[in-house]
């Protein structure tokens, strides 16, 4: 019986490096991402997440290293060159990707309107029909003829995501897409992401919501000081989250007085523990008087940092 052929990675990064002056933002990052895979990108502020996303999406060029897409080596010179091979980034603030003064339909087709051969400006009926087809295919009910300014935050986020889907991405990079949404609105957006993964679109997902990470991703990679330090299964995050920046045996988590009914990943720290919304107050009280910023583990109460 023949062995199954291992799938080829969609994205292959090899030894990516990037410096800004004396700061090493990325230091030899190597990573494979496969079609249909959901990968969580985790790390403290300054760990290199934004730099990695900007290189993948064509905003920055690496100083060294290689980037391969579908087996072809790439060197992006702009976000357009990244989109041409199927890498699309959707950033946290939807207003950054919306053109005021245009309709919802025109915003949905904004990338197509920018093409030299676009005839939508001369044929508004064709534009609306195209937008209606896209929205229906995604199961979206948007007021396509209304000015985009009338949309609420959730619908603007859905619009920007739908616009990314129009580009038929192979890798979709999402930065905190549900951060400002209600639970119901977040579920609508996550449903769209699920549908894209089912079609084979790979997702690189940045979020502080543990529930999002477990829903959207199957792997979690951790950057620390520009280096990829961990690659783990997302289902291990509830127990492994405390060890993302250190050994849990040496640096146990600071826990709140009351157990949380629903885990919510609020932020990572170099000290190796998670703060969630309920824990945040408890942590702040324990580090009060130690100055601003993230307190080192050794500065906390020694009784709470001993091995259990």
From TrEMBL:
Q: Does the keyword Ligase apply?
A: no
In Pfam terms, one family for this protein is ABC_tran
Q: Which domain of life is it from?
A: Bacteria
All residue ranges annotated as the ABC transporter domain in the record: 11-250
What GO molecular functions are on record for this protein?
Answer: ATP binding; ATP hydrolysis activity
List keywords of the entry alphabetically: ATP-binding, Nucleotide-binding, Repeat, Transport
**Is Repeat given among the entry's keywords?**
yes
Q: Which InterPro entries does the entry mention?
A: AAA+_ATPase (IPR003593), ABC_carbohydrate_import_ATPase (IPR050107), ABC_transporter-like_ATP-bd (IPR003439), P-loop_NTPase (IPR027417)
Q: Would you tell me the protein name for this molecule? A: Sugar ABC transporter ATP-binding protein
Q: Which organism is it from?
A: Pseudomonas cremoris
* Top-level taxonomy: Bacteria, Pseudomonadati, Pseudomonadota, Gammaproteobacteria, Pseudomonadales
